[in-house]
């Protein structure tokens, strides 16, 4: 009997030790590396590890909730899978969280398994940041070395410029001395006879070659008129114009690196006459949660701090407080500098080109430029904007440039509407231009009529 009791007590002690040891082990279950991928896929739209976004910061969330609210991992499983059902069950803390965050309903994740949630919690408890920190340190060292090299190059360039300026200053001083000597010589009375002879000889030469001089003057006048006419013709043509904007915006990062569709921001290009500059509300759709730049691409001369500062400018103009995740109501407009600006007497409809002419414009451009292919219609006029850090005018946008495009761009006859509407015209052109197969270009359907663009 004593032996049985002794073994019974030993068994209870062993079980107690196992349970007490099992509690902290439970918090370490899960794979942080798998959890990192799951976190980025499912959580980053509303959460970050180190700061509040739409929802609270999640670093060490399990440990924090256990100490603050006395809830365990099972509660977190229920909250993540179906927080709505947990709130409706009357759970006090679930409803407190719901009220605290302005009754913003968290997305339900019934698709996540118990192991998936354990992996995510393992990642939030111990994110594998050491490798990232090391990589960041290497990158910082590389940036520092590059900065030193750039500084050395700038120092050498500055010395060259200073030496050049001293040489130019010396030459100018020498010329001034020589001019003073010439002026003194001209004032000498002994040279009057020589000067009278030179004047007389010049007059005789002018009389003898008077027709030649007049011809040269006429030629100079024509060249001057041509120069004036040519300069007038290029008024308003600003190819290559790329002004500095109040908020730095890199199309290479957004459209190039992140593959954001042009029409996500410039929705008016498809549905209206103008493509419109997107409002800050469009920017905030993404940057409400993206408060810092973590991309791999860095423009030469720019760093992460620069991009983060530009994002803060968006918040300032939109009146957004990232700390409270709310709008302050103190918004102020951004004074963007316009780049593409059609003259008032020119009518241009973006929707007509982007929708009706999309395939025709892309095919026509690629035929004319086999070594410079495009994949979206926007690039035909605006250039490869997904490679531009600073947007610039890629083409002339002159009347001649537009007419040339209308003369060479074929109408898409595979389009059911065009095929039916221009069927008679197509048959006529086939007979008129048999070698070309009766191709219908935009000029054949009124693309050169004055009233199409000027009204």
Describe the protein's architecture and organization:
This protein is an all-alpha fold and 455 residues long. It folds into four domains: 94 residues, Cytochrome Bc1 Complex, Chain D, domain 2 (Orthogonal Bundle); 33 residues; 153 residues, no CATH class; 57 residues, no CATH class. The protein has 21 helices and two strands. Strand 1 and strand 2 form a beta hairpin. Helix 2 crosses helix 6 and helix 15 packs across helix 16. The termini are far apart. 11% of the residues are buried.
Give the arrangement of secondary structure elements.
Elements: H1 2-27, H2 32-42, H3 61-68, H4 73-88, H5 92-100, H6 114-125, H7 130-186, H8 192-208, H9 210-233, H10 251-257, H11 262-265, H12 268-271, H13 280-287, H14 304-318, E1 320-321, E2 326-327, H15 350-356, H16 358-368, H17 378-382, H18 399-408, H19 416-421, H20 423-432, H21 450-453
Helix pairs in contact: 2-6, 4-5, 13-14, 15-16
Share in β-strands: under 5%
The share of residues in helices is: 55-70%
How many strand elements?
2
Q: Structural class of the secondary structure composition?
A: mainly alpha
The backbone outline, from C-alpha atoms, is flat
Low-confidence stretches: 1-9, 11-27, 130-138
């Amino acid at each position: 009997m004593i032996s049985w009791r002794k073994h019974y007590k030993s068994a209870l002690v062993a079980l107690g030790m196992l349970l007490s040891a099992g509690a902290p082990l439970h918090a370490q279950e899960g794979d942080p590396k798998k959890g990192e991928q799951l976190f980025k896929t499912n959580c980053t739209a509303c959460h970050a590890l180190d700061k509040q976004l739409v929802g609270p910061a999640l670093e060490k969330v399990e440990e924090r909730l256990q100490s603050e609210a006395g809830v365990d991992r099972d509660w977190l499983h229920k909250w993540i899978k179906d927080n709505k059902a947990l709130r409706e069950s009357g759970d006090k803390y679930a409803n407190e969280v719901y009220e605290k965050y302005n009754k913003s309903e968290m997305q339900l994740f019934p698709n996540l398994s118990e192991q998936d949630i354990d992996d995510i919690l393992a990642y939030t408890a111990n994110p594998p940041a050491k490798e990232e920190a090391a990589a960041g340190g290497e990158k910082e060292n590389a940036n520092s070395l590059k900065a030193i090299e750039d500084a050395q190059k700038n120092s050498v360039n500055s010395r060259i410029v200073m030496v050049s300026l001293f040489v130019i200053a010396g030459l100018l001083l020498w010329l001034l001395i020589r001019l003073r000597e010439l002026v003194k010589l001209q004032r000498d009375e002994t040279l009057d006879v020589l000067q009278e002879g030179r004047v007389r000889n010049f007059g005789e030469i002018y009389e003898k070659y008077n027709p030649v001089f007049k011809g040269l003057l006429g030629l100079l006048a024509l060249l001057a008129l041509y120069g004036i006419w040519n300069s007038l013709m290029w008024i308003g043509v600003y190819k290559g114009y790329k002004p500095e904007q109040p908020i730095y915006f890199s199309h290479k990062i957004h459209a190039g690196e992140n593959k954001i569709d042009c029409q996500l921001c410039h929705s008016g290009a498809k549905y209206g006459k103008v493509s419109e500059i997107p409002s800050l509300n469009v920017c905030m759709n993404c940057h409400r949660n993206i408060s810092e730049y973590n991309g791999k691409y860095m423009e030469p001369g720019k760093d992460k701090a620069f991009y983060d500062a530009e994002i803060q400018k968006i918040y300032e103009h939109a009146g957004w407080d990232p700390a409270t995740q709310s709008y302050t109501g103190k918004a102020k407009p951004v004074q963007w500098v316009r780049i593409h600006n059609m003259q008032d007497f020119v009518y241009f409809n973006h929707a007509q080109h982007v929708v009706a002419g999309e395939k025709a414009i892309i095919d026509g451009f690629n035929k004319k430029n086999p070594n410079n292919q495009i994949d979206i219609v926007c690039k035909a006029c605006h250039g490869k904007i997904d490679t531009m850090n600073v947007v610039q005018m890629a083409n002339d946008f002159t009347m001649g440039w537009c007419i040339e495009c209308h003369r060479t761009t074929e109408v898409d006859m595979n389009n059911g509407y065009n095929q039916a509407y221009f069927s008679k015209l197509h048959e006529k052109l086939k007979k008129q231009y048999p070698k070309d197969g009766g191709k219908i270009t935009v000029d054949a359907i009124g693309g050169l009529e004055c009233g199409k663009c000027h009204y």
